[in-house]
Amino acid sequence: QKEVEQDPGPLSVPEGAIVSLNCTYSNSAFQYFMWYRQYSRKGPELLMYTYSSGNKEDGRFTAQVDKSSKYISLFIRDSQPSDSATYLCAMQGSQGNLIFGKGTKLSVKP
Amino acid sequence: IAGITQAPTSQILAAGRRMTLRCTQDMRHNAMYWYRQDLGLGLRLIHYSNTAGTTGKGEVPDGYSVSRANTDDFPLTLASAVPSQTSVYFCASRQGGGNSPLHFGNGTRLTVT
Questions:
Q1: Between A19 and which of A76, A100, B56, B95 could a Cys-Cys bridge form, CB atoms 3.0 to 4.6 Å apart?
Q2: Nearest-CA neighbor of A88 among A5, A16, A2?
Q3: Chain B residues close to A31, C-beta within 8 Å
Q4: Cβ–Cβ of A43/B4 closer than 8 Å?
Q5: A79 SS3 class
């Protein structure tokens, strides 16, 4: 089993929809959980950052961590065409380097 | 604007040739990283450096070397390129410690023919 599993999609939704992106992981030692957004031909940029279980909200984005289930989610409310990108989950490994999911490609149709 | 600069943005390289990908950051971050990103495989760590003067191997280090002579620069060298090294290469940095986020450059698209 890979350390981090993420459904690659692609995921296509209409504008205004609620989007749910998810990752599962196997290493119970992970403490820091991040979501990165990557536009085409660009580098990933940090979108959300959480520590331990619970929810964190930032505008239309909510990150959720359930350490007991080893499951993290990113919710996007009122999705916009500008949200079309690849979303990568990431978690901190034992040496301080991040372990990334493979990314989910999202397309929001106007 | 502070950030990470990678050069070149793209390159086509003949197999067997030597190539150095450049990475410079102006944020005075201690830690720097090189990743490659391939379709279906995601981001994989090649080499990292926690501070100037030190380097370490990541998940896929074979065929690559790095150096960290100073805080700002972290070049990645392919001594003798092979077609399997065709990929998009991202340099990243962070201040250090588990609770600081990674900042990425915009990548170098490398094609080895």
A1: A76
A2: A5
A3: 98
A4: yes
A5: coil
